Automatic annotation (TrEMBL):
PANTHER family: MANNOSYLTRANSFERASE YKCB-RELATED, MEMBRANE PROTEIN. InterPro entries: LipidA_mod_glycosyltrf_83, RgtA/B/C-like. Keywords: Cell membrane, Glycosyltransferase, Membrane, Transferase, Transmembrane, Transmembrane helix. This is Glycosyltransferase RgtA/B/C/D-like domain-containing protein. It is found in: Cell membrane. The chain crosses the membrane at residues 12-32, 38-58, 65-84, 128-145, 207-224, 244-265, 277-296, 374-394, 401-418, 430-448, 460-479. One of its GO terms (cellular component) is plasma membrane. It comes from Cellulosilyticum lentocellum (strain ATCC 49066 / DSM 5427 / NCIMB 11756 / RHM5). It holds the Pfam family PMT_2.
Length: 482
């Protein structure tokens, strides 16, 4: 795992090594029958890493070294959670593990059977990339581990989500470097926000979609700075493969498209318009066939609109029984800790749902509510810090920062519109706007950096760092013992 932190390696190589490492760990845990010991091993690894890191950092404090330890523990949490959480626990849209069903499991079984779904029922309306990769993993591991039980077979698909959840951490680190901000707080918040553990342990396309959206943010800024062939191809692949994962990834085409218009205007002034047009043509030639192939297929075969989303109907809680103000313009603070968890069949306020959802998703945990309550209180404080950071960035002139702020606005408008059209509890889930959280951590880090020379800077940074550290420790502990 040490090789994952080499500065000489590109993120692509790092992610490849990471993928292989996760695969090997999964095989060893299964062969040695260590599934029931995973949480104890996680705690041991984390304590050992913390002690080793503490010793090294006491000798000489190095922010880069600390960032590596944060990454490592973030990987341990995601891999560990995936290993001890079966695919039938805290799942979304898994369905019955049968080819005759219409959930995520059935989609994968169809691919394993050598065909795409022959309808767009249930989860079959989604693009196929996640399901193809999951099928490949199952195809490789099934004979190696001699799997016969259907749930054991489907559990292998968690490896795809886990790998992309881990890979997102590399993207966050690169985003911090691109923006030239202190990476410790943004990286810590993304590494230890529990919902990223949850996404990394599921059989669905959320973690993979979040990865591609984070990559789009990163390479949109890289492309803005330099319209090289490399940056253009990677950005196009991120859009194309992202839309082959989940069509909602296309929402980021709005802020990125506006960034491209800025480049066109600048190129006219600099007499480099032809080069910019060539770059945009290359981008379109790669991204559009990849991104639009499956939506066009479903349009032709099933008359499925490009913006189609499965409507759960009366099965889901109808939050439209509440007023617009109750759902979108209020924050019922009296319900913040009572109950501490979300309820998809009775909650109606999207801001409260998002706050709790970042920590617990839509699930309840069989532990004392004391720890979750403390975590929720601290997370609420952190959320206030992040919102203030976003507001402070509205007066920025840096194009990259304005791009990130615009991305937040576009994603949140799409999220609100989604909840208006589909007024259910489940549509308020954090997973639909996870990239917004990532952007807010970056702007939080930017805010602290920009105010580091002011009188209150040391107090502000220490307060922020202490709050984030406490939150991270509680998050690690809770998800090692549940």
């Amino acid at each position: 795992m040490v090789n994952l932190f080499s500065k000489k390696r590109t993120n692509l190589v790092n992610i490849s090594i990471l993928s292989l490492s996760i695969l090997v760990i999964y095989v060893l845990v299964y062969i040695l029958g260590l599934e029931d010991s995973v949480q104890g091993i996680m705690l041991l690894l984390i304590i050992s890493t913390a002690l080793m890191g503490g010793f090294n950092l006491c000798q000489k404090f190095d922010k880069e070294l600390l960032a590596k330890y944060i990454l490592l523990i973030g990987f341990v949490m995601r891999i560990g959670y995936m290993l001890y959480t079966p695919c039938t626990v805290r799942y979304h849209d898994l369905g019955i593990i049968s080819i005759d069903s219409d959930g995520n499991a059935a989609y994968i079984l169809n691919i394993l059977n050598g065909q795409l779904p022959t309808s767009n029922e249930g989860q079959f309306y989604h693009p196929p990339l996640y399901y193809i990769l999951s099928s490949i993993v199952i195809f490789v591991l099934k004979p190696i581990l001699r799997l016969t039980d259907e749930m054991d077979i489907m559990n292998c698909a968690r490896l795809v989500s886990c790998t992309f959840s881990c890979a997102t951490l590399f993207c966050v680190k690169s985003l911090c470097e691109e923006l030239k901000i202190n990476k410790l707080i943004p990286l810590s918040l993304v590494a230890f926000l529990p919902n990223f553990y949850l996404m990394g342990g599921r059989v669905n396309n959320d973690a993979m979609a979040v990865f591609f959206m984070t990559m789009i943010l990163l390479f949109s800024m890289k492309w803005y700075k330099k319209q090289s062939i490399r940056n253009t191809i990677i950005l196009a692949l991120c859009f194309g493969l992202g839309m082959m994962t989940k069509i909602s990834v296309v929402v980021l085409a709005i802020p990125t498209g506006l960034l491209m218009i800025v480049v066109i205007v600048q190129s006219i002034k600099n007499n480099t318009l032809l080069n910019s047009i060539k770059s945009l043509c290359l981008f379109a030639v790669i991204s559009m066939p990849l991104g639009l192939a499956y939506p066009i297929r479903n349009l032709v075969l099933f008359n499925q609109p490009f913006n189609y989303v499965l409507d759960v109907g009366e099965v889901g809680f109808k939050s439209h029984y509440y007023t617009f103000a109750q759902r979108f313009l209020s924050f019922p603070i009296t319900k913040m800790f009572n109950p501490v968890y979300n309820d998809a069949f009775s909650d109606y306020n999207i801001w409260m749902y998002l706050l709790k959802g970042g920590l617990f998703g839509e699930f309840r945990f069989n532990i004392s509510t004391t720890l979750p309550t403390i975590m929720l209180f601290i997370y609420a404080l952190i959320s206030i810090f992040m919102i203030l950071s976003v507001v402070s960035c509205l007066k920025e002139k840096d194009t990259n920062i304005l791009y990130l702020v615009l991305s937040i606005m576009v994603l949140m408008i799409a999220y609100v519109a989604f909840n208006i059209k589909y007024p259910y509890g489940c549509t308020m889930d954090f997973r639909y706007v996870a990239p917004v959280f990532i952007i807010k951590t970056l702007l939080f880090g930017r805010f602290l950096d920009r105010n580091k020379d002011k009188k209150y800077s040391k107090i502000l940074y220490r307060l922020s760092a202490g709050t984030v550290l406490t939150f991270s420790l509680l998050s690690v502990y809770m998800y090692c013992v549940i």
